[in-house]
Amino acid sequence: MDPRMRNTLSGSTSPYLRQHADNPVHWQQWSQDAMDWARERNVPILLSIGYSACHWCHVMAHESFENDAIAEIMNTNFVCVKVDREERPDIDAVYMNATVAMTGQGGWPMTCFLTPDGSPFYCGTYYPPTPRGGMPSFTQLLEAIADTFTNRRGDVDNAAESIVTELQRASGGIPYGPPIDAALLDGAGRSILGDEDLPRGGFGGAPKFPPSALLEGLLRQFERTGSDEVLGGIERTAEAMARGGIYDQLGGGFSRYAVDAEWVVPHFEKMLYDNALLLRFYAHWARRTGFDLATRITEETANFLLRDLRTENGCFASALDADTEGAEGLTYVWTPAQLVDVLGEDDGRWAAELFRVTATGTFEEGASVLQLLRDPDDWARWQTVSDALRVVRKNRPQPGRDDKVVTAWNGLAITALTEAGLALDKPEWIAAAADCAQKLLDLHLVDGRLRRASLGGNVGESTAVLDDYAALSTGLLALYQATGSANWLDAAQELLDVTVDDFADPAEPGSWFDTADFAEVLVTRPRDPLDGATPSGASSVTEALLTAAALVEDPSLYAQAAADSLARARMPLERAPRSAGHWLAVAEASLRGPIQVAVVGGGDLLEVARRLAPGGAVVVGGEPDSSPLLADRPLVDGVPAAYVCRGFVCERPVTDVIGLAAQLNLPVS
Questions:
Q1: What one-character-per-residue DSSP string does 291-350 give?
Q2: pTM above the 0.85 mark?
Q3: ∠ CA 96-100-102, rounded to 5°
Q4: What distance in Å separates the CA atoms of residue 606 and residue 641, rounded to the nearest whole number?
Q5: Residue 329 above 50 pLDDT?
Q6: Contact 436, 414 (CB under 8 A)
Q7: Residue 192 and residue 213: Cα distance in Å, rounded?
Q8: How big is the CA angle at 456 (ends 451 and 459), to the nearest 5 degrees?
Q9: pLDDT at 207 over 60
Q10: Are strands 641-646 and 649-650 parallel, antiparallel or unpaired?
Q11: What is the DSSP letter of 7?
Q12: Which residue from 471, 473, 476, 487 is spatially nearest to 531, judged by alpha carbons?
């Protein structure tokens, strides 16, 4: 028997792949060897892509991949390859585009059939073990694909060639346009708010995903314009999410999305990237408005990251699973009777009314997801009740945790914890961010280039993609501003120099590939400038470049690259602003200069600058000439002074808090 006829996933650095190591399917990891084996056997590749916290990935695994009879069909007729989308976002992007092109929709688990050279010819998502809802059974599909590949190979090759041609055509860059202006951004804001679900918050209908990047972009627009309409849209969505079931009212942190339009029932997986992005937004909202709810959600979300997602080496795990012991919501949902059992009759009824736990239930089998649609009338009682429920919940079965450390998502967490720590005066959050950043640089930076992920202190082989470099660079720049340590600025510059060299399209200034020029060659080189659940690599690197240009001694390279990138952002901001939330945030910062505040001497002036400067502003404090932004900026009459600049235009230095506040709140037309 060929020694490759076995499951090879047990040695993977991906927890998702390891979940499938005991399947009877002879899963291979993505490799040239797997493709060569398919060519030798003259069989197609069955590519299955998912991630560890995915509910329907678990369902398909239990129904099909753990079934001996189905596994036998798979092993006989295919080379079966399993990929973790979080570890290999480049592979996921290519075949997700193919799936959407063929079916009109995508999702996970993703099921693609490829020729031995990796060209897709048939794609889909979840398939049931028996025919259901108009879908064929997975067995029927496998047999039909195997028969077509054997007996109609010409049709297969023609279909694959056509699909690859279309993928390559669609991966071109977006046009270069005029510079960003206020009219463009105001129009993008109006378009986004035009899609608002006014009664319930959010944009569009169910399912509802947290629009973290959109909210950050709109908040920066409010800071520029002072528009009550923009602020209202922000507050309605931010409060609806914070009070709904998508937010964990006992433990803090947000689930990946709500299945309904009212934010009541979540898909229970909790992703690091969602919570990092939302922590950043809620911290900025709290800083800007002083709203108690914003402050509470910021504190609870930061505590969730540090308590539930922090790994032993100080970095952050990727996710908590959607399922607990194979069931969604088992850890989190309650019935009225359970509340009475834990709290007693009076407190149990009070808690049920407060948390909207009903006799019929808001979830399944009469259970309810906790909501907090109004503040309690007795905060001390609420704290006592919540503490008691947390103790009981902690003793329930808990969801699994994907301990994989992803560079980009940890970069988002570093930025969020640093900026939230400054906003709420929590130096311990900044210290945690610095610890994580140092661990990433020590482990994930190999021979001057980043790796995508690690597990248990062992770095994987997968090379980092654009958003890894960009998000980590942004986090390092945030740490530099918070601490004044030049080591963070130096490290960010080194990463950005590699990024410009390896990811920029030399034929189209301002256009970026998502994979490096030395990375594995796939059927097409992915390039997607639109923002999704996470900011695109292109918008992320533009943020890093824009920030770095305000901090380094020679800004010309970074400033030009950022300007070129923003010129290509015009099309998504005009035509698809809901898919350009992070572009909006970066463009708003750019339109304001970005604002640069250099505070010599520190003290109250630096604290006020950090509290009042809008999102995307650059704020540095220290002694005169201690950094590029503080060069040639002395004390004024022997006392600390703040120098406020917008782009290349600077205000007169001010030495008092009132003068600084006035300069920071000047609108830009």
A1: -HHHHHHHHHHHHHIIIIIB-TTSSB-SEE-SEETTEETTTT-B-HHHHHHHH-HHHHHH
A2: yes
A3: 115
A4: 9
A5: yes
A6: yes
A7: 12
A8: 20
A9: yes
A10: antiparallel
A11: -
A12: 471
* CA 510/CA 174 separation, integer angstroms: 9
* Closest C-alpha to 546, from 496, 504, 503, 505: 496
pLDDT at res. 3 = 65
CA distances 421 to 9, 191, 287, 491, 525, Å, are 40, 33, 11, 21, 38
φ and ψ of 93, to 5 deg: -65, -45
Q: What is the pLDDT of residues 242-291, one digit of tens each?
A: 999 999 999 999 999 999 999 999 999 999 999 999 999 999 999 999 99
Instruction: From 154, 129, 130, 156, select the one nearest 145 (Cα to Cα).
Output: 156
Q: Which amino acid is at 596?
A: Q
How far is it, in rounded angstroms, from Cα 155 to Cα 525? Answer: 25
Type of residue at 155: D
Q: The tokens of 353 are what? A: 């009314």
* Pairwise CA distance, residues 415 & 421, whole Å: 10
- DSSP 3-state of 397: coil
Q: How far is CA 192 from the centre of its chain?
A: 20
Q: Which helix (H) or strand (E) holds 279?
A: helix 272-289
Asked whether the beta carbons of 44 and 118 are under 8 A apart, the reply is no
d(CA 378, CA 382): 6
How confident is the model over 266-275, as pLDDT tens digits?
Answer: 999 999 999 9
Please, which residues have CB within 8 angstroms of residue 142's CB and are 6 or more apart in sequence?
A: 46, 70, 73, 74, 77, 78
Pick left, alpha or beta for residue 175 (phi over 0 → left; psi -120 to 50 → alpha; otherwise beta): beta
> Could you give the 3-state DSSP secondary structure of residue 406?
strand
Query: Is residue 62 a contact partner of residue 21, using CB atoms and an 8 Å limit?
Result: no
Residues 6+ apart with CB under 8 A from 129: 63, 64, 67, 70, 137, 138, 139
At residue 668, does pLDDT exceed 70?
no
Secondary structure of residue 267 in the 3-state scheme: strand
For range 498-521, the mean pLDDT: 95
DSSP single-letter state for residue 104: S
For residue 550, give the amino acid letter.
A
For tokens 């920029």, the residue is 504
Let me know the angle formed at the C-alpha of 415 by 222 and 314, rounded to the nearest 5 degrees.
150
Residue 1 confidence (pLDDT) above 70:
no
Q: How far apart are CA 240 and CA 572, in angstroms?
A: 27
The residues that bridge with 316 in the sheet, in sequence order, are 310
- Residue 109, preceding peptide bond in cis (omega within 30° of 0): yes
Instruction: Please write down the HEC assignment for all residues of 105-131.
Output: CCCCCEEEEECCCCCEEEEECCCCCCC
Cis peptide before 207 (omega within 30 of 0): yes
HSE at residue 318, side-chain half, CA atoms within 13 A, is 27
Of the candidates 224, 240, 235, which has an alpha carbon nearest to the alpha carbon of residue 285?
235
Q: Are 598 and 199 in contact (CB under 8 A)?
A: no
CA distances from residue 168 to 98, 161, 164, 279, 412 in whole angstroms, order as listed: 11, 11, 6, 37, 30
Residue 272 CB neighbours (<10 A): 26
